[in-house]
Design brief:
It contains twelve helices and 16 strands.
């Protein structure tokens, strides 16, 4: 009999699959609050039900095969799927725990988890290591969910603690729209991890038609666009997908996308030395985003063995940022979180494959 991953289901779906249906809530609690990794642990379930669950469902679809710790407190994980493929996820420590003078906790650590949506990627961006290995397959919603659940478990992050999610690991989320949307819903389940939709950000290389479709779903999630270049000619060289969906089509799709009043669409701009770090590009970027509630996130290109591209200088990066901010555009430079553990996704997996 074919077994399914139990994390593939929303609570409503699960309650249709399980009899009696109220058990679905208990199961959800075991999985997402107590981080159970076997059905046997679920003490308040009848023996018969545990047996049925065991026969029909998988509860541990991922196995941790490697973890790297960064000096800044971030951790990068490599997970193996049931068919032997591997994907990466990263726990980013955004803010340390802080205390009041009397020793009481002012605020807890703030975490963001960066998750993968595919094994490999079809988009084939010239600068991206994930693309080099080609495309293997889509992840199911449950395999996406499990990355976060395992990271929370392993780091003893309480079920009720807020975390932010970014679909910025391996793969193109909108190329796996169905499973990604399903995972957004499961992440936000009240009885599950209860990660609010506005704490989830989907990053895309710009599949305009899918952005439109995603927008119509009104999920309440945030959108990030990997722009990286301001004219079609250069963007096409860096990102072949630009032939199918050019910059104008992306801008149009973004303008139609429903955005939370307090939020902005993030435009990621991977800065590569002598390729797109010039002031002419900064100027064009400014005019391109005119009329959009946007923020720009500049990313240092993170070099790896065999790439022709180079990391930009701090000076050019600052200059680029200052040009935009002084003209009223929100612009941040992505801190090179976990740079010492090769943070750009795809890099840990590559290392593991080389070692094999
Ligand atoms: N496929 C989606 C989401 C995953 S890629 C997308 O492209 O948006 C997540 C981010 O990692 C992208 O913005 C991508 O440009 C960036 N990235 C890829 N290779 C990188 C590298 N070598 N250094 C720094 N960032 C990189
Ligand atoms: Fe795929 Fe994103 Fe890498 Fe491009 S940058 S190849 S879209 S994962």
């Amino acid at each position: 009999m074919k077994q399914e991953i139990i994390q593939d289901f929303t609570q409503a779906e699960l309650s249709k699959l399980i009899t009696p249906s109220f058990r679905a809530k208990q199961i959800y609690h075991w999985i997402y609050h107590k981080y159970a990794t076997s059905f046997e642990e679920m003490k308040n379930l009848p023996k018969e039900l545990k047996k049925t669950l065991n026969e029909n469902y998988i509860i541990a679809p991922l196995k941790q095969v490697m973890v790297q710790n960064s000096k800044d407190g971030s951790k990068k994980y490599l997970f193996e799927l049931h068919d032997g493929h591997t994907v990466e996820a990263v726990l980013l420590l955004m803010k340390n725990k802080q205390y009041h003078e009397d020793g009481s906790v002012k605020h807890q650590e703030r975490y963001t988890v960066c998750i993968s949506s595919q094994v490999g990627c079809k988009v084939g961006c010239a600068f991206c290591l994930t693309a080099k290995g080609g495309f293997m397959r889509n992840l199911t919603a449950g395999e996406i969910i499990e990355q976060v659940r395992l990271i929370k478990k392993e780091n003893a992050i309480d079920a009720n603690r807020r975390v932010n999610l970014v679909y910025m690991g391996m793969g193109e989320p909108l190329d796996n729209l169905k499973e990604v949307v399903q995972s957004v819903k499961i992440f936000s389940e009240e009885e599950g991890m209860a990660i609010a939709r506005h704490r989830q950000t989907i990053s895309t290389s710009g599949l305009s038609s899918k952005i439109e479709r995603l927008g119509k779903m009104e999920l309440g999630i945030n959108l990030a666009i990997s722009l990286h270049a301001v004219d079609d000619e250069l963007r096409q060289k860096l990102m072949p997908i630009n032939k199918a969906y050019n910059i104008a089509s992306i801008i149009k799709a973004v303008k139609n996308f429903p955005i939370n009043d307090r939020k902005r669409v993030m435009f990621e701009y991977l800065v590569i030395k002598d390729v797109n770090d010039d002031m002419h590009s900064a100027k064009k970027l400014l005019s391109l985003l005119d009329g959009i509630k946007a923020k720009v996130n500049l990313i240092y290109f993170n070099p790896y063995g065999g790439t022709e591209f180079k990391r930009p200088s701090d000076k050019d990066m600052k200059k680029f940022q200052e040009y935009l901010t002084s003209r009223g555009l929100h612009c941040t430079i992505r801190e090179s979180k976990g740079l010492d553990i090769s943070a750009a996704c795809g890099q840990l997996r590559e290392q593991e494959l080389e070692n094999k």
